[in-house]
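We treat protein structure as text, and this decision shapes the records that our systems exchange. Below, we set out a record of this kind in full and without editing:

***
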Amino acid sequence: MDRIGDDLLKVMVAELGYREGAGQRTKFGEWYSTHMVQDSQYRTAPWCDMFIAWAAERAGVEEYVGQFAWTPSHARWFETQGAWSATPEPGALVFFDWSGGKDIKGVDHVGVVERVEGGTIHTIEANVDRVWLKRKARDESKVVGYGLPRKVAENLRQGPGDDPAPPQVEVTPAPAAGTASLILYDTEGTFPLLEPFPLATLIAFVLGWTFLVAKWHPRPPAGGRHRRRSERGPRDTPGSRRSARVD
């Protein structure tokens, strides 16, 4: 048995022997009416599927089991999840139509398969024999189909579609000896416009470009900055000084 089914059944087994109270009230209906829908009518509603919703949450597998009160909607959910089957297996939810029909719209009841022996399925079901949560042994004459929580989990892990292919890396070959790579790309950057060419051509191209830039942008003349001339006269030298005259 898969882990999801095993965890779900462990919670359900612990509740075997539970019986609904007066007025068809159950703790599972109480939980569903406050936790799932905020509607008091569910407190006394048929509780076979609400029990499974409760147990799934306790087991931490509600994402794969689903949480419903209306059994046809629950069966349809498994179908849309790609997890509907005609073959019983432990841990599967089994949906019944007491009239013997095979259409999901006619589903009346749901339980969980505990084991399969030949043509007999052994189940745990709530709201059976009027008031009980108990084990049952049934043939498949009233079975509409099976919902597989393990399959829901597998589909969720796989996700929609196939995994994307790894990106392809384009390798540009190294230029031949004596050549230089000046590779220009188009506006989308998708392919080169110029291939590698001889090194001498590259040098001539660079020198020519440098000459044009120098011609278009001449250097400013030396001393182009204006300097303020000193307001002081030439500094006197010792030989130019006059001796002080003594009167």
Observations:
- The longest strand covers residues 109-117.
- The chain has two domains: 3-158, 179-217.
